[in-house]
Design a protein that fits this description.
It is a single chain. With 772 residues, this protein is of the alpha+beta class. The protein has 22 helices and 30 strands. Ligand MTE binds next to α15 and α17.
């Protein structure tokens, strides 16, 4: 197996990030003054004390913006710096530029503000009742929901509260801007979206886009948090660099980063699910209340993916899915791995769970019975093709002995009263393609130098997910040469124009396909050049193992000889190519279409043990079968599967964003926000990577970035399964299932009725749990 191309640099600490390059002379530093209140109008802003601080070079507010004060990625109306109205705590109001970061932060502390407070809304249902939307709500529908309820043998209803999630990229938001000639600026940004940064910087500075160059070598993690929300910081330093004619850098500290930037959207949801006696799903009616935060950001696109994934991997002939982006006074929530899909799938799994509990059967019986297959239709009109849902489920059931596991757990639970084991299967089905159709485009620029080494530039941003490794693998395989010959360049707006964000798990698909087109242009030229030399037809020539083959027979033409020959004969050694995903379309007037190039599938088993007296639990085992198409690099894929799983488990079990009613984030440091670590990882992890051919992916591969996070939902239902083995009580479908929530779910009724405790927890059980 071959490593990630950055592996050696990373392990030696030699990888360079934005602020690791040597500081340009005279570089200045920025700290941001954010609103102390969540909603109100600024009455007075006093910058005089900060201005007087030695070492403070300038303070800028909205008035100083040379161009337009506008950074909205989809909908307009999102300001970079507050003009009068503040809408969330931490919203940037003024920027202090100083000789050192410390002085800049001192300067921020000296700013005085008075705000006339307005009513603060933090609950999406309240915003919904007030009609406070980011955009008009949307509904996806199929069949006739209202007509079929009467045919259902069982109808279950419920409500879910699903928490958000902090991205917690190791590298906080940062950018460095360097003025070049005239009013031009080069900006190094930790962004997933160099073109979004370029266009926003140009708008803020009031200059044409070609005056702004954005360069991105790599990110210390993005996870969606830098798909759009890296833009603001890059704009701030680019504007300051242009105004002051000096290099300017910003590096957010962790607390500012957590307070000022948005997270995974919390959702509140209502579900109603109708089934036949045999467990077949007849109908569902879901309502999603997305907590969008104070600005649109990407919320409408995230909401769209919630609508697309509400039925997860199940056949639902009659469905009505309503979703509203509700405006609240929290930081604008944004892209996060899965992009609204995970929240939707959680609700579907909760509805199935409630149905199974009501019917007195295992959840997996209902799941399996309703898995989609070829020819079924998603509520948005796309017909299921090349379906791997049952294949993955059956593979996991057999490989990991589903029946045996259930039996083992039943036996354990029959002989233990205070600790209980639980089990759940989490099947996933995730659509690949940006749901905004126009974003499904990419380009690639390939240069071959005369020594046979290559430089590959694409719009793909390396954020740890391995896109540079994949680009190198793809180019090497297409040209039939060693990966060692290839260098994948930084992502730069002067080499690749108008690139889409590196997101939607589609980066390798889009940029890999563009790279294949570029390398094929070069190979076509080589064939035309070599055919007369070799006295053969062009299509008899192939390239493999750094050699030219004719009709499958090796020749004496090595890669280096071909390249040198091309150069001397004035054959172009560079190519630029463009790729646009074929076939996809969507009509939002009727909410139907074929938005996804294909789907990714898998099924994962979770086995947990819960200490039902203390609320603590352990994840005994996670066993995954995941569908990857023809793999490009197994190490990269495994890293994505394990990393996504861990992140999903964290979201569902530990990570709790606490806000007060004033919209203040209480958990804004790693001392109060618990992230998953080696202790919360499953004690046993088995991963089976399924390799099949995917005609829609580059070299037959499938995207892998986001889907595995959704497996994490399984741990929630495994915990619930264990808790239900302890008590037949019902408890809400709210996430995350922290140990505290386990404890309170099992025992909080004792607070109302202390006698209940004695009835349900005999002395013997207590000593058993304490002994363990
Ligand atoms: N893996 C690492 N190590 N770091 C990241 O920031 N982001 C995730 C996923 N895996 C991320 C990651 C998200 S949100 C997405 S959309 C994809 O990677 C983006 O990359 P891809 O399109 O190449 O899969
Ligand atoms: N970003 C985006 C995404 O702009 N559109 C999408 O469909 C998407 N999907 C997943 C993650 N990011
Ligand atoms: Mo990922 S949420 O598409 O950056």
């Amino acid at each position: 197996m071959k490593n990630h191309v950055d592996a050696a640099f990373h392990t030696r600490g030699e990888s360079l990030y934005v602020d690791d390059n040597p500081e340009p002379a005279g570089m200045l530093h920025v700290a941001v003054f954010g609103s102390p209140l969540a909603h109100g109008t600024i009455r007075r802003l006093d910058l005089s004390a900060a201005r007087a601080l030695p070492g403070v070079v300038a303070i800028f507010t909205a008035k100083d913006i040379p161009g337009q004060n506008e950074v909205g990625p989809i909908l307009k109306g999102e300001v970079l710096l507050v003009e009068e109205l503040v809408e969330f705590i931490g919203q940037p109001v003024a920027i202090v530029v100083a000789e050192t970061p410390e002085i800049a932060h001192f300067g921020v502390d000296l700013i005085d503000i008075e705000i006339d407070e307005l009513p603060i809304v933090v609950d999406p249902r309240v915003a919904h009742a007030n009609g406070n939307f980011i955009a008009p709500p949307r509904t996806f529908a199929i069949g006739d929901v209202d007509a079929v309820w009467r045919d259902c043998d069982l109808i279950v209803e419920g409500q879910c509260e699903i928490a958000g999630q902090e991205h917690l990229y190791l590298e906080t938001q940062r950018a460095r801007a360097i003025p070049t000639e005239g009013d031009q600026v080069r900006c190094y940004s930790s962004t997933q979206s160099p073109y979004a940064v370029q266009s926003a910087c140009a708008r803020i500075c009031g200059v044409p886009q070609h005056k702004i160059e954005i360069d991105v070598k790599r990110l210390g993690g993005g996870f969606g948090g830098k798909e759009d929300q890296a833009t603001h910081w890059a704009c701030i330093v680019t504007m300051a660099a242009r105004l002051l004619r000096k290099p300017v850098q910003i590096v957010l500290n962790r607390i500012d980063d957590m307070q000022m930037t948005g997270k995974r959207h919390p959702y509140s949801a209502d579900f109603k699910l109708g089934l036949k006696k045999d467990g077949t799903i007849e109908a569902l009616d879901f309502k999603f209340y997305q907590n969008s935060g104070a600005a649109a950001d990407l919320s409408t696109a995230v909401l769209e993916r919630t609508l697309f994934h509400a039925t997860n991997t199940y056949r639902v002939p009659n469905a009505r899915i309503y979703a509203a982006a509700c405006k609240t006074n929290l930081h604008p929530h944004t892209a996060f791995r899965g992009f609204g899909g995970p929240q939707a799938m959680f609700v579907m799994e909760a509805a199935l769970s409630k149905a199974a509990e009501t019917m007195g059967i295992e959840r997996e019986e209902l799941q399996y019975k309703n898995l989609i297959s070829d020819g079924d239709v998603f509520p948005f009109g796309q017909v299921v093709e090349d379906c791997q849902a049952k294949i993955c489920w059956d593979d996991a059931a057999e490989t990991f002995d589903l029946a045996g596991t259930r039996k083992r757990i039943e036996e354990y639970n029959a002989t233990h009263t205070a600790t209980k084991k639980g089990f759940a299967v989490m099947p996933i089905c995730f659509g690949i393609s940006f749901t905004k159709i126009h974003l499904n485009q990419a380009s690639s620029l390939v240069h071959i130098y005369t020594d046979g080494s290559l430089s590959v530039s694409t719009g793909g941003v390396e954020m740890g997910q391995g896109v540079s490794t994949n680009m190198a693998e793809i180019a090497a395989a297409e040209l039939g040469i060693s990966r060692a010959r290839i260098k994948v360049e930084s992502t730069n707006t002067t080499r690749i124009a108008n690139m889409s964000p590196s997101a939607a798990s589609a980066t390798t698909d889009l940029n890999g396909n563009a790279t294949i087109l570029a390398t094929n242009q070069i190979l076509t030229r080589f064939r035309a050049m070599l055919a007369p030399e070799l006295g053969c037809a062009e299509d008899a020539i192939t390239f493999k193992d750094e050699l030219v083959y004719v009709d499958g027979e090796p020749t004496e033409w090595s890669w280096e000889k071909v390249v040198e020959h091309a150069y001397l004969n004035r054959v172009a050694l560079s190519a630029h190519a463009f790729f646009a995903t074929p076939r996809i379309h969507f009509d939002s007037a009727v909410e139907k279409g074929h938005p996804f190039a294909y789907h990714v599938y898998g099924a994962t088993h979770f086995e947990v043990t819960v200490d039902c007296l203390r609320g603590r639990y352990e994840i005994d085992a996670v066993r995954m079968v995941h569908d990857l198409g023809r793999q490009i690099n197994e190490v990269v894929d495994l890293g994505q599967l394990e990393g996504g799983l861990a992140q999903g488990i964290g979201w569902m079990t530990l990570e709790e964003l606490a806000y007060d009613e004033k919209g203040r984030l209480l958990s804004k440091a790693l001392s109060t926000y618990k992230a998953p670590d080696v202790f919360s990882s499953p004690k046993k992890l088995e991963v089976k990577m399924r390799s099949t051919e995917n005609p829609a992916g580059p070299r037959g591969s499938k995207a892998v970035g986001e889907p595995p996070i959704m497996y994490g939902i399984g741990v929630y239902f495994a915990l619930r399964d264990a808790m239900r083995a302890y008590t037949a009580r019902d408890f809400p479908y709210d996430a995350p299932m922290t140990p505290e929530r386990v404890l309170m779910s099992l025992h909080s009724h004792f607070l109302d009725d202390p006698n209940a405790a004695r009835e349900t927890a005999p002395a013997g059980e207590v000593s058993e749990a304490v002994a363990e």
